[in-house]
Amino acid sequence: MIQDIRFAWRLLLRAKAFAAVAVLTLALGIGATTAVFSIVNGALLRPLPYPNPERLVEIHNQSLREKGLNKLFAVYPDYREYQQHSRSFDNLAAATWAVKSPILTGHGAARTVTAIPVTASFFHLLGAAARLGRTFEPADEARGCQVVLSSAYFTSTFGADPKVVGQSIALDDQACTVLGVMPPTFAFYPAAAQLWMLITPDRPELDKLLVVMFARLKPGVTPAQAQAELSAIHAAAHGGDEWREFGPAVSFLRDQLTWLAGRNLRTTLWILLAAVALVLLIACVNVANLLLGRSLVRGRELAVRAALGGGRLRLFRQLLTEGLLLATLGGAGGVWMAVGAVRYFRSVNPVELPVGAEVAINGPVLAFTLLVSALTALLFGAAPAWKASRADLNSAPKSGGRGNVSSSGLGRAMVAAEMALSVVLLAGAGLLMESVLRMGSADLGFATTGLVSASIMLPDGPYRDADARIRLYRKLQQGVAALPGVEAAAIASSSPPDGAGTDTLQVFGKLKPPGLLRHDVIQVWIDADYFRTLGTRIATGRAFDAHDVKDSAAVAIVDEALAREYFPNADPIARRIQVAGEKSPWLTVIGIAATQKRTTVYQEMQWVAQPTVFRPFTQGVPPGMALLVRVGSDDLRVSAAIRGVAASIDSGVAIGDVRTMRQRLAVYLAYPRFRAVVFGGFAAFALLLAVVGLHGVLGQLVSQRTQEIGVRMALGARPADVARMIAGQGGAPVLAGLAIGIGCALSLGRYLASMLYEVKPQDPVTLACVSVTLLAAAAVAMALPARRAARTDPMTALRQE
Hints:
22 helices, eight-stranded mixed beta sheet, seven-stranded mixed beta sheet, alpha+beta, 16% strand
């Protein structure tokens, strides 16, 4: 074996150009595969960074009637019920991010803090200890507001001063004691959390607090068993209230964290790994073709070795060793390339990964690379070695080593395979790219260019009264609207495309169907300038005006989506509707607005025309609102002026999350764009390899048939006839590969369905573009060998014969 390796190494040194091309091709394929697998391993396969992570589960609510509502927050009393009566868990905790952000004062300008309320058992459940100080204990519930800081927030806001532990900070004008600081390695959802607040019994409206629960299963208990137990507890607790329509769902924590990071993240990463595996397969086929061509040159050498006693098995082993050496060198180069790719991925951070994900070239990834390298050696080395060892070795010395180890048939079959795989990748990339373009240019019902949005958070103390909030919002809107360069400003409870809701709607005079109506209505509180600022037209009726105040008749504007769904054969103007339950007021519809498309938490690739009810904020203003500013261009220089206006009104008002609408939309396009770019890169590389492979096979064919071509031309064949003959030899595998590839693309397209926007998996335009691209590239690859064959000198060819 050592002798075979030494001999293979000497051969590669003598054929440096061949070795460089083969190793580089393999290194690119193996490197790309290793890099993608490192992301898959870190995001999907690596255990969560907590003790016994396989026993950690998440508990949320799901609708028992509506399939679309499969992930909902529960209410805090459910946590207490499960904590007292469940026997399936070693530990149970609750947390929520469905709350308004508190305002930090006393450390520079007032600003919002991403604070996550949690129960005292939260950190103990995860087995996480503080870096400084300590985490929550049950006794802390009686000690008022307590917080634990994240390491990043501790450094950025408090300068990493350890004296902050034990001191108080002001959150919503409430003194909160800092108990500890978490280590930099601690992470949980959401990743942007800056501190965690203890949920205490005196928290306002604690019974209505929406939470998600996390638990550690007892050994031997499955999620299904725990869910069955919790379902019985939930049914007993909510037998007569609105929550009876829902029930608990228990899932492994890893699965839920992956879903929260990206609705299609798991599918995306597995599809990208499959795509890069196809690229590696094409690279292997290319190298196999190179080895087949090289075996032609070595025909005499192989015959001499056979004559000296080397059997076919011995020759096969030697040739396979050469392939293994190439794979080893390619694998080493691939690891080097993968390290660079992973570093770039971590620096750019193009998409959000699940909590605890660590993308790195570690032991499991290196083991995967070693396995891939070995498999590639078998894939590209076995067929050429078998073909060469089975050739007619007795005639090789007479032929000068040319033509007896024929590879034309096998080579063209490999080209057809390359073309088919390239078509599949090109079709997938085309569908994903078209989806991104369509989604990015979709008409959302409002003008996205030149629109800036920001959150407005008010301290609880001075603005508990609704009238005080109304006055503040009016002053802020008027002050911002008067700024230089501002065309319009508006106040709203949510900024599109956010704001999908699950409210129910009842139409006055229409019988309510059995059970609850569908939870499909959004309720948005706005001011009179909202539609003008966003550029949304009023189709019928009127917009809100100064007469729509607290003591006037309760009114609403509905969008066209709601009108179509709830009033398919009637005019909703002057009709009365009720939103979110029987305790809500009846609203008179005064106008119909164009539909504003929004996102939905359950789907990634979709803008949803969800039925929406707009209400004047003066008739029920919520504590947290958004500011929308039309500035004419995507320019954030207005943000400082907005904060200045807020500070001049009340220094305790926090303006945060200032972004252009383009920036907000880019968040929803991040995963689709990442998929499309990476998939497109793989497809382009695959096409390049396939074209190079086709060119190589035809070049070998011309070399093998030089004498035949000379004879044909001596007997009267024209150069055009010879060129057509060579083009026909290359065109057959190209057309066969195209047909096979389109068939595979049609059958595999359904796996991309959840990642497409307004594009069918069998889109004929995409398949036509792919076909034209492939045929054009193949024509370029065939042109040079055909031209070379057509320019063959008959006399020179006959003299060589």
